[in-house]
């Protein structure tokens, strides 16, 4: 199982210049992937901007949005943003997407929370079409340079419709930041949907957990703040923030036992020393 690390782009009032430095240090340490968490109605750095900054600061490490709120974007605009980041990074981006749950993140007129599942289905067609070189709707020009690849897609999902969409249209599944025991059922649902869709092989499976090693209390507080107004989910995520080497190693072992391809450990603070602390434990 590969071990990735999240960027601190959605730590409240993040010191934004830390993001490229964090990315460089994570690559030097040997982490497999840099992940981002995405919201709009929150005082952090936009996930696409964080990924672009990380792409420019590194040359080998993978990049993953975990997950970007795709339905808050016009489909053609997100398709171009993702393809551009992927191109700048020389093909290192995996676009992890979901439909979103918080109403205040839907700020674009005509792209509200209603009917977002159906909009996602339409947008997926737009992504694939534009990445293949089709013209932008209403224009004779394509959105992307010739030779642009189909950016790999992963889905965050919890409903049957979302698991179906994941299995039919993407490369795999990203579970939420929950304990391995809870994620196990989600991964089983992803595998089952994959088989039901008649897909060969198996989906790529990615787990997420939070860590806060240098300042556990501040890290938990930051995670609680980010997940405010999500009800019981907030308690689950905050209760699963790993604050010791023993807890981190135990989580890694549990996810590895589930047959997960990659576990990404996201930070609760923007303390750059967290990269080294975590690398010393898991790499």
Automatic annotation (TrEMBL):
<dbReference type="Pfam" id="PF00296">
    <property type="entry name" value="Bac_luciferase"/>
</dbReference>
<dbReference type="InterPro" id="IPR011251">
    <property type="entry name" value="Luciferase-like_dom"/>
</dbReference>
<dbReference type="InterPro" id="IPR036661">
    <property type="entry name" value="Luciferase-like_sf"/>
</dbReference>
<dbReference type="InterPro" id="IPR050172">
    <property type="entry name" value="SsuD_RutA_monooxygenase"/>
</dbReference>
<protein>
    <submittedName>
        <fullName>LLM class flavin-dependent oxidoreductase</fullName>
    </submittedName>
</protein>
<keyword id="KW-0503">Monooxygenase</keyword>
<keyword id="KW-0285">Flavoprotein</keyword>
<feature type="domain" description="Luciferase-like">
    <location>
        <begin position="19"/>
        <end position="241"/>
    </location>
</feature>
<keyword id="KW-0560">Oxidoreductase</keyword>
<keyword id="KW-0288">FMN</keyword>
């Amino acid at each position: 199982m590969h071990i990735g690390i999240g960027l601190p782009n959605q730590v409240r009032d993040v010191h934004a210049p830390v993001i490229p430095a964090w990315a460089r240090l994570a690559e030097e340490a040997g982490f497999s992937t840099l992940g981002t968490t995405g919201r709009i109605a929150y005082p952090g750095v936009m996930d696409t901007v964080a990924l672009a900054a990380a792409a420019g600061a590194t040359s080998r490490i993978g990049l993953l949005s975990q997950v970007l709120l795709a339905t808050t974007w016009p489909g053609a605009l997100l398709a171009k943003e993702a393809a551009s980041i992927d191109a700048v990074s020389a093909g290192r981006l995996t676009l992890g997407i979901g439909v979103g749950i918080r109403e205040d993140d839907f700020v674009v007129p005509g792209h509200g929370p209603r009917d977002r599942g159906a909009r996602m289905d339409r947008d997926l067609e737009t992504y694939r079409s534009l990445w293949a070189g089709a013209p932008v709707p209403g224009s004779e020009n394509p959105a992307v340079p010739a030779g642009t690849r189909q950016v790999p897609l992963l889905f965050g999902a919890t409903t049957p419709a979302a698991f179906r969409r994941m299995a039919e249209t993407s490369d795999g599944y990203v579970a939420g930041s929950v304990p391995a025991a809870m994620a196990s059922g989600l991964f089983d649902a992803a595998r089952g949907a994959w088989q039901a869709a008649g897909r060969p092989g198996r989906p790529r499976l990615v787990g997420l957990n939070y860590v806060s090693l240098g300042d556990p209390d501040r890290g938990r507080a930051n995670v609680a703040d980010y997940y405010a107004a999500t009800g019981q989910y907030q308690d689950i995520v905050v209760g699963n923030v790993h604050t010791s080497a023993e807890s981190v190693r135990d989580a890694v072992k549990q996810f590895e036992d589930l047959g997960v391809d990659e576990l990404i450990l996201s930070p609760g603070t923007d303390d750059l020393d967290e990269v080294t602390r975590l690398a010393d434990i898991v790499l």
